Amino acid sequence: MADVPSHAFASDNAAPAHPKVIDAIVAANDGAVASYGNDDATQRAAEAVRTVFDSPDAEVLFALTGTAANIIALAAAVRPWQEILCSDIAHSLVDEAGGPVRLSSAPVTPLPSDNGLIDPALLDAAVARRGPVHHSQPRIVSITQSTENGRVWTPQAIKDFIGHAHDLDLLVHVDGSRIANAIAALDISAPDAIADADIVTVGGTKNGMLMGDAILVRRPELFDGIHFVQKQIGQLASKQRFVAAQFEAILGDGLWLQTAAHANRMATRLSAGLQALGLPMAAPTEANEIFVDLDPAAYAAVSAEYSVHRPDPLLPTVRFVCSWATTEAEVDGVLALLAPFAT
Ligand SMILES: Cc1ncc(COP(=O)(O)O)c(C=O)c1O
């Protein structure tokens, strides 16, 4: 038994930064440059984000965490009497300590989902109470690609969902903390992974960066004041060149999709192995996250060696997340520990 459990599957943000990212930071560490994003690296990184998402008219902001990127995007979308919709497992709802509510003063209302995938028909009911002064007014719906439970929105599904939301006069935010995993898993273009979304947070931290997520504001006129929200919550990094350099490094030569594809491959290997052992999967494995139900003995065996997350302590579901750095040996190590619990 290991003295200290490995964090290889705890989360993709437990992974180290990719060496090319570190090299890029070192290269950016040269002399004095303009601060607060007025530097050349920031302009180049913003252009790289615009280019991969084929959004020439978008504004790009950079934040230090995915939580901050979501909060900035959502808080800039609404006024206090409006409402933010999202899935019942959305990170913005469950895992941001109420940040979007605090910064926007608008409620965040969950919609039922299939592991984060929302039926577009549910939006009709959500907007039905619009109008009277007594009710919060739905303004934006946030969806996650890939979802918190590791599912992906196919190009058709996300296109239909966003089309319907727009028909209902709702804006759409895509939490793309793991968008590279969705793009790689579906083998689609980046624009197809976000369809006609109005604003997208683009993950870097979970995909090999040291830290940093981008905000792609595709309809800037609808997010008036977003730069002030970013500044107010302390997310306009004065030394932004170092975040920008990381984005240049991962986007420039397709590294972000190579790292994501590797994470997905490791997840597929682990998922296939768990299923071969007859262990019950709690969600389909479609990107880099695996959810499996383990009885207490199996959980104890695996968690002695690997730190793993149990989203709900009352349920037997255990989450494994693979990253760009996960190895086949680590995957096979988990499977060996669980082999005695095969059914
Ligand atoms: C779907 C999703 N969005 C956003 C975040 C936030 O990222 P961070 O931990 O960098 O704030 C996470 C992190 O786990 C996430 O899973």
Automatic annotation (TrEMBL):
Keyword Transferase: yes
One of the protein's GO biological processes: amino acid metabolic process
Cofactor(s) it depends on: pyridoxal 5'-phosphate
UniProt KW keywords: Aminotransferase, Pyridoxal phosphate, Transferase
InterPro entries: ArAA_b-elim_lyase/Thr_aldolase, PyrdxlP-dep_Trfase, PyrdxlP-dep_Trfase_major, PyrdxlP-dep_Trfase_small
GO molecular function annotation: lyase activity; transaminase activity
Domain Aromatic amino acid beta-eliminating lyase/threonine aldolase: 9-295
Family recorded in the similarity comment: Belongs to the threonine aldolase family.
Stated name of the protein: Aminotransferase class I/II-fold pyridoxal phosphate-dependent enzyme
Natural source organism: Mycolicibacterium porcinum
